[in-house]
């Protein structure tokens, strides 16, 4: 029931994913800004006006700051710095070259990309950041800025204008592509995480309901022996007859022992649900002998036959395997038919390198057909009218089944009332990891 | 067959003794509650049922007779809730002379809240019975 709890939350945190994507995006844009500045300063370099190089060179310094801020997760600050610095340096380059080379056209892709660098929820910030390059661009275009480059021939000038124009168009397209693909991927990722969150949520709700039911049943089952112990204690207080007191006392102790058994089983159950499965070598002969020895002294007079065939090594979780084995063997002892003679138990086991097939058969009281599917349910106790059998915790077979499921095996029962009961367990051998 | 009368040695119901029906699958609680009720109300008549289905047929025949039903919830064949639904379906609740109480080992709010679905149930008691419970039942 609770065995399938897994909490993949955190491993694929959607908001964290989006942040990672934004970091990557901002980093890319920052490198493109550097490229824009270098392209814009090419004409000046051609005419050996080295002072212009100051702009892309100092930009490299700010690029470092922007990338550092991005890595630190301060994406909004990094975007602000990037937008402001690029705009400023581009203006400086244009101002030194004059408008004849068309370097101010590079403001266009910059303006396109700015809304993606700035926190769009803050309108004032956004408007300021767009106004900044816009004013620069207008100033260069319409302001009276003298050409500072040495006499530039009309041919070269045309060539640069065409070159820059082409690049601006390319950059605009490229930015648009980058933005759209970024958006598409983000949307896709958000949808996937949303879907995943929904399934996880449904699973958690289901687990929660199961947990509620579990706690409810447990509280019922734990309270019953406790309530009878309290009731007996009250009777003892009122009772004068020493024999009666003795009798009540014995019943009380029995009940407390039942409670103890139940607590042990609940612990086993929670261990099974929580602990990772381990890979241990299993020697069936030894395990079965050990298990029989544990219960044999309590139930004398049962003839036990074993037929164990293990020729290869077999691996599974030893702790869980013992839970299953002990449960089946102790049940076979407990539910013997008092009127049957001889009382028999037959344990057969066939092991190869792929799987183990274990059969535990007794000629005891048997299980009614309508109970056979239900005996594996939590707190289901079949056949309440068996005066010679002390009631169990109602968890034994339930835990056995859960344990077998953890070992990727399965369990079946065949029985006829008053005749026999046979449990069959099949467990695959665990392969080494990796 | 499963209804065992442990009401002292007399076979007839005494006029002034209160009649109790105990419905519980756990016979240990029959012992405990019989003794306890006897110690508090020596005149009480107690009829025990291990199987809730037997209790249903017997009690349905005696709904006009004043008495008290102490009903467990967690039972095989028929839970206390199923018992109450079956009982309500087969009897005229307006002439009901019986006082029905739940007597369960569960003290969960879930069960306490569910009693409200059966307005003819007089109360919810948690095992084991106490003197307080007895005085509540009698009043």
Automatic annotation (TrEMBL), chain A:
**Swiss-Prot/TrEMBL catalytic activity:** ATP + protein L-histidine = ADP + protein N-phospho-L-histidine
Q: Name one GO biological process term.
A: osmosensory signaling via phosphorelay pathway
Keywords of the record, alphabetical order, are: ATP-binding, Kinase, Membrane, Nucleotide-binding, Phosphoprotein, Transferase, Transmembrane, Transmembrane helix, Two-component regulatory system
As recorded in UniProt, its EC number(s) are 2.7.13.3
**Which ranges does the record mark as transmembrane?**
25-42, 49-69, 75-95, 102-118, 159-180
**Histidine kinase domain: from which residue to which, for each copy?**
217-431
**Gene Ontology molecular function:** ATP binding; phosphorelay response regulator activity; phosphorelay sensor kinase activity; protein kinase activator activity
Q: Which InterPro entries match?
A: BphY/WalK/GraS-like (IPR050351), HATPase_C_sf (IPR036890), HATPase_dom (IPR003594), His_kinase_dom (IPR005467), HisK_dim/P_dom (IPR003661), HisK_dim/P_sf (IPR036097), Sig_transdc_His_kin-like_C (IPR004358)
SUPFAM superfamilies in alphabetical order: ATPase domain of HSP90 chaperone/DNA topoisomerase II/histidine kinase, Homodimeric domain of signal transducing histidine kinase
- Entry coiled-coil feature ranges: none
Q: Which domain of life is it from?
A: Bacteria
| Protein's recorded name | histidine kinase
TrEMBL record, chain B:
Q: Which GO terms describe its biological process?
A: phosphorelay signal transduction system
The record's InterPro entries line, in alphabetical order, gives: CheY-like_superfamily (IPR011006), Sig_transdc_resp-reg_receiver (IPR001789), TCS_response_regulator (IPR052893)
Keyword Protease assigned: no
Q: Which UniProt keywords apply?
A: Phosphoprotein
Q: What's the domain of life for this entry?
A: Bacteria
Q: Does the keyword Phosphoprotein apply?
A: yes
> What residues bear 4-aspartylphosphate in this entry?
72
* Entry-linked PROSITE patterns: RESPONSE_REGULATORY
According to the record, the signal peptide region is none
Instruction: Enumerate the spans annotated as Response regulatory domain.
Output: 19-139
**Annotated Gene3D superfamilies:** 3.40.50.2300
What protein am I looking at? Response regulator
Organism the protein comes from:
Xanthocytophaga flava
Biological classification of the source: Bacteria, Pseudomonadati, Bacteroidota, Cytophagia, Cytophagales
């Amino acid at each position: 029931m609770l065995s399938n709890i897994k909490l993949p939350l955190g491993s694929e945190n959607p908001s964290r994913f989006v942040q990672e994507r934004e970091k990557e995006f901002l980093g890319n844009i920052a490198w493109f800004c550097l490229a824009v500045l270098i392209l814009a300063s090419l004409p000046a370099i051609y005419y050996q006006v080295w002072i212009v190089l100051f702009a892309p060179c100092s930009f490299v310094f700010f690029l470092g700051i922007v990338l550092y801020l991005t890595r630190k997760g301060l994406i909004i600050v990094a975007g602000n710095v990037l937008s402001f610095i690029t705009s400023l340096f581009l203006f400086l380059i244009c101002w030194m070259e004059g408008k004849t080379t068309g370097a101010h056209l590079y403001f266009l892709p910059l303006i396109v990309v700015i809304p993606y660098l700035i926190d769009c929820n803050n309108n004032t910030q956004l408007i300021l950041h767009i106004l900044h390059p816009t004013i620069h661009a207008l100033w260069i275009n319409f302001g009276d800025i003298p050409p500072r480059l040495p006499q530039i021939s009309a041919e070269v000038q045309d060539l640069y204008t065409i070159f820059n124009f082409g690049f601006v168009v390319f950059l605009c397209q490229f930015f648009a592509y980058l933005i759209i693909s970024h958006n598409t991927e983000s949307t896709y990722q958000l949808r996937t995480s949303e879907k995943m969150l929904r399934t996880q949520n449904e699973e958690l709700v289901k687990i929660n309901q199961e947990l509620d039911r579990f706690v409810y049943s447990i509280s019922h089952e734990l309270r019953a022996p406790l309530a009878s112990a309290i009731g007996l204690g009250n009777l003892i207080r009122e009772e004068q007859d020493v024999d009666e007191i003795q009798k009540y006392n014995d019943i009380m102790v029995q009940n407390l022992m039942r409670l103890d058994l139940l607590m042990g089983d609940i612990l086993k159950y929670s261990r099974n649900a929580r602990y990772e499965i381990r890979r241990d070598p299993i020697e069936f002969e030894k395990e079965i002998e050990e298990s029989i020895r544990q219960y044999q002294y309590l139930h004398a007079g049962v003839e036990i036959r074993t037929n164990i065939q293990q020729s290869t090594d077999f691996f599974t979780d030893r702790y869980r395997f013992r839970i299953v084995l002990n449960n089946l063997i102790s049940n076979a002892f407990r539910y013997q038919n008092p009127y049957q003679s001889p009382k028999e138990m037959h344990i057969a086991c066939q092991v190869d390198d792929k799987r183990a097939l274990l059969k535990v058969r007794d000629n005891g009281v048997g299980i009614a057909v309508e109970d056979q599917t239900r005996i594996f349910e939590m707190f289901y106790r079949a056949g309440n009218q068996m005066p010679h059998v002390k009631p169990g915790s109602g968890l034994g077979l339930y835990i056995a089944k859960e344990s077998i499921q953890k070992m990727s095996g399965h369990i079946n029962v065949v029985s006829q009332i008053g005749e026999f009961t046979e449990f069959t367990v099949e467990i695959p051998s665990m392969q080494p990891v990796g | 067959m499963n209804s065992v009368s442990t009401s002292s040695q007399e076979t007839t119901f005494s006029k002034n003794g209160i009649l109790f029906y105990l419905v519980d699958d756990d016979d240990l609680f029959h012992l405990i509650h019989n003794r306890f009720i006897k110690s508090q109300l020596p005149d009480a008549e107690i009829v025990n049922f291990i199987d809730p289905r037997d209790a249903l047929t017997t009690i349905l025949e005696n709904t006009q007779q004043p008495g008290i039903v102490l009903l467990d919830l967690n039972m095989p064949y028929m839970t206390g809730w199923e018992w109450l639904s079956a009982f309500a379906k087969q009897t005229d609740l307006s002439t009901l002379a019986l006082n029905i109480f739940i007597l369960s080992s569960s003290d969960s709010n879930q069960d306490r809240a569910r009693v409200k679905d059966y307005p003819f149930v007089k109360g919810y008691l948690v095992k084991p019975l106490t003197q307080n419970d007895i005085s509540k039942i009698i009043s």
